[in-house]
Amino acid sequence: MNYMINISFDGSGYSGWQRLKENDNTIQGKIENCLTQMCGRKITVDGCGRTDAGVHAYNYVVSFLLPEEKEPCEIKSYLNRYLPKDINVSECKRADERFHARLNVRKKTYCYRIWNSEEHNVFNRRYMYEFDGTLDVEKMEEAAKLFCGTFDFAGFSTGKKTKKSTVRTIFSVEIKKLGSEIQIEYTGTGFLYNMVRIMTGTLIEIGNGKRVIESINEIFETGKRELAGYTVPAKGLFLKEVIY
Amino acid sequence: MNYMINISFDGSGYSGWQRLKENDNTIQGKIENCLTQMCGRKITVDGCGRTDAGVHAYNYVVSFLLPEEKEPCEIKSYLNRYLPKDINVSECKRADERFHARLNVRKKTYCYRIWNSEEHNVFNRRYMYEFDGTLDVEKMEEAAKLFCGTFDFAGFSTGKKTKKSTVRTIFSVEIKKLGSEIQIEYTGTGFLYNMVRIMTGTLIEIGNGKRVIESINEIFETGKRELAGYTVPAKGLFLKEVIY
Questions:
Q1: Model ipTM?
Q2: Chain A CA closest to residue B126
Q3: Given a cut of 80, is residue B206 above it in pLDDT?
Q4: Cβ separation of B10 and A122 shorter than 8 Å?
């Protein structure tokens, strides 16, 4: 029987989603261990994508097959009882047998949170990147338009060069100003390693007057990572939504 | 010149407000060190009250005399630049020369936050007490009324017996249900050591059916701490407002 769960997690304490070896400190590892314990036999799960170490999720989707039928509410309760408190299961449902959390993704939305003030955001400081220089949001919005479309994003990634395609489609980049907080939301088919964080660093440099908007074209043309902005910290990044 | 500042802080990493010796890990200590550095001579400050280790504040008031006149916005900027990120100065003003942050307090409001769900509140888990038993909020509201008035709260405190009065006046106890979160707000003239946390533990035991409402009368009559409920964890407690 195939199931899907929606989870949220605080990624601060983890080396990311993807399990690499037994008992490593990954979110996948915690969930697999928990389901394995529940079923008395080894269970593996598929997540909707890799997230880097320290990245959070408001809504991450996981699918898995269980050898025996169980009530979804039972699975949810069991997981919430035994998972660490920085991972929460908000929903569990039976899924179509062909459903796969990663292979069926159509769109994903990531949100990057910036705290732009000389004051400290005491209670959310673990979930925002504090940048207290000036930021021209209109300029950032203008620049953000250049990311929308289908392009080779190689210059916006720190992944090793492989034969895999680095072409991705971004549907929208929305910038919201909520008091001293600036949120940048990226919706696209998929994102390369560090891509959202490098695009955000590039937008911040533009908003701060350290870089011109047109520099984005050159990064696309050359594919050179060193021409793009810095990689902003993982702690401000959240996977917000996955559309199938 | 006399000044007052409003601060918020995440108390998780501190042994409370009150400085006990040089370079201890207290909020008072951090602020005094910072102002001393700014003025080039030793500055001491008065806070609006002691807060226990691990207790937070949305709005805590501090007053202090500086040897030389400074612009309030300069003081605020300096403090926010050099204080740790878990303490924020939201306002700085010149104060009447007779103003004293502790002696002039008329009312204080504390808020205790309970997360009442089998799910985890991933991003606020450091600032709520997770209690997943059932809670009858109406019963808790009925019981809370018994706290309102002027009484000897000795039984609701773990302070050592001293000659100081343990009589306090509570004006109101409000219980709010916001989804899975329950907030209990206590407004009074002042509170004894651990008093809000023991009253909250007592209300939780009543809401959970482990204790009857009338037991509160007996705690008042005998003044015996062991008859009251347990001391709930500091992490759910916030100083919310101080009225002068």
A1: 0.92
A2: A123
A3: yes
A4: yes
